[in-house]
Specification:
single chain; alpha/beta; Metallo-beta-lactamase, Chain A; seven-stranded mixed sheet; 34% helix; 22% strand
């Protein structure tokens, strides 16, 4: 059996891991790279393998860095099953067409700007094409097939799949493959952690623990960091909102449309209901977030006991008198004229594209406002530059002095911290013979490699892109 790593290798985005066993080529995840725009564009356009050669795709969850290249995979000839949970499929049905639509609009904008420049200089013009379109994304959905948690299914000769709850986002899964390797006559349990969540985070259940893994492919996003407790971040969120309110300012939260937005709305709902924060307008300004929230409402089977109890007492955890879900461009523009304190939750979560850029452009130069970062920010993104405290930022090609306050809350992270990752491995009674760390920047992955070796005496590799292992 061979495993080759084509993405999320010493970086966090572009998750793609290829398993070849018993003549079958199984791809774990097919995510987009994010970061430097031109570099990411080229990485996402061409696969380092023949899409037609892939027999099956197993998708751990719907986040774009894990699912975002699926339409391009199908566009380039993949015709196998895409196996995931029902909630993941429903989220992808919203997220992937949205990604295609954004790419089409971005290409139109770039071509419009470039056409003008080339016409002025008298040079020929070659238009930019999106990696995939809205229609491409819609076409790929016919290949999705779903499987519930804990239900075994044979997916290939000698290969049985079981999903376990990863606790990272709605529908997220730990992938367990029971493999009868025909070449070696060995039985192997291969586990791909996907993105592991945290215990005690609202809405979704805690991540499952597994007792056995012979081969482990594990994320390491926060392999060198321990998170502050969720409730500490909730209290800090309360403090930030109150202080910004007293300044007469606006709180802008760049937030991932799927998972983080719903988590924030639920937490704000609780704080307002308790009277801990003032009842001020909350704008969820992202059509994708609005659609994703509707998907959340369709999958209460993924909820934890806390939110089920909340629903019995308050019905809709994502509905609140103060919350306005914004779809239209016109309504989004009207928020810019809001001069009273309010909260704006808008995508993208790394402030690289989408409506949040317009809100930042209009508010970032005003010191009474606060930009609240609640998730991991990839290198070279605007979100990362804000976390690093830069004084001047570039938005839509123009420079703006950053006068707004910037606050960072790590307790809302959907990724397990170092201590939680170690505890997850430590719960196994049969620990892996080989471990491969993915989905982490190099310093985080290498630090976690050392931690695993010291704690459990494991054999750990941190693969580079394209590296192949025979196991």
């Amino acid at each position: 059996m061979d495993i080759q790593f084509y993405g999320a290798a010493r970086t966090v985005t572009g998750s793609k891991h290829l398993i070849t066993v018993n003549g079958t080529r199984i791809l774990l995840d097919c995510g987009m790279f994010q970061g430097k725009r031109q570099e990411s564009f080229e990485q996402n356009r061409q696969f380092p393998f023949d899409a037609k050669s892939i027999d099956l795709l197993i998708l751990s969850h719907a986040h774009i860095d894990h699912s975002g290249s699926i339409p391009n995979l199908v566009k380039q000839g993949f015709q196998g099953d895409i196996i995931c949970t029902a909630a993941t499929r429903d989220l992808c049905a919203t997220m992937l067409p949205d990604s295609g639509f954004i790419q089409e609009r971005d290409a139109e904008f770039i071509n419009k700007q470039a056409r003008r420049k080339h016409e002025r200089n008298g040079h020929p013009f070659t238009p930019v094409e999106p990696i995939y379109t809205y229609d491409d994304a819609m076409a790929c959905l016919q290949y999705f097939t779903t499987r519930n948690y804990y239900r075994e299914v044979k997916i290939a000769p000698g290969v049985t799949l079981t999903f376990h709850d990863a606790g990272h986002m709605l529908g997220s899964a730990i992938v367990q493959l029971h493999i009868e390797d025909h070449d070696t006559n060995r039985e192997i349990t291969l586990v791909f952690s996907g993105d592991l969540g945290r215990k005690g985070i609202p809405i979704i259940r805690d991540p499952d623990t597994l007792t056995r893994a012979d081969i482990l492919i594990m994320e390491s996003t926060y392999g060198n960091r321990v998170h502050e407790p969720y409730w500490d971040s909730s209290q800090k969120l309360e403090q930030v909102i109150i202080e910004t309110y007293k300044r007469g300012g606006v709180v802008i939260m760049p937030a991932f449309a799927v998972g983080r937005t719903q988590q924030l709305v639920y937490t704000l709902h609780e704080l307002m209901q308790k009277g801990d924060i003032p009842e001020i307008p909350i704008y969820v300004d992202s059509p994708l977030a609005v659609n994703a929230t509707a998907v959340f409402q369709l999958h209460p089977e993924c909820y934890d006991d806390e939110i089920r109890q909340f629903m019995q007492e308050n019905r809709d955890p994502f509905g609140l008198n103060s919350v306005q879900y914004v779809r239209s461009v016109e309504d989004s523009k009207r928020i810019n004229f809001e001069r009273q304190p309010c909260i704006i939750i808008s995508a993208s979560g790394m402030a690289e594209f989408g409506r949040v850029l317009h809100h930042l452009k209009n508010r970032i130069t005003e010191p009474q406002n606060t930009i609240l970062i609640t998730g991991w920010q990839a290198p070279h993104t605007l979100g990362r530059r804000l976390v690093e405290g830069v004084d001047v930022v570039r938005i839509f090609g123009e420079e703006y002095p950053r006068k707004a306050q910037v606050e960072v809350l790590n307790g809302f992270s959907g990724h397990a911290g170092q201590d939680e990752l170690l505890a997850w491995v430590g719960a196994m009674t049969h620990r892996p013979q080989r471990t491969f760390l993915v989905h982490g920047e190099e310093d985080a992955a290498m630090a976690f490699k050392t931690s695993l070796e010291q704690a459990f005496n494991l054999r750990v590799d941190v693969p580079v892109t394209g590296q192949k292992f025979s196991v």
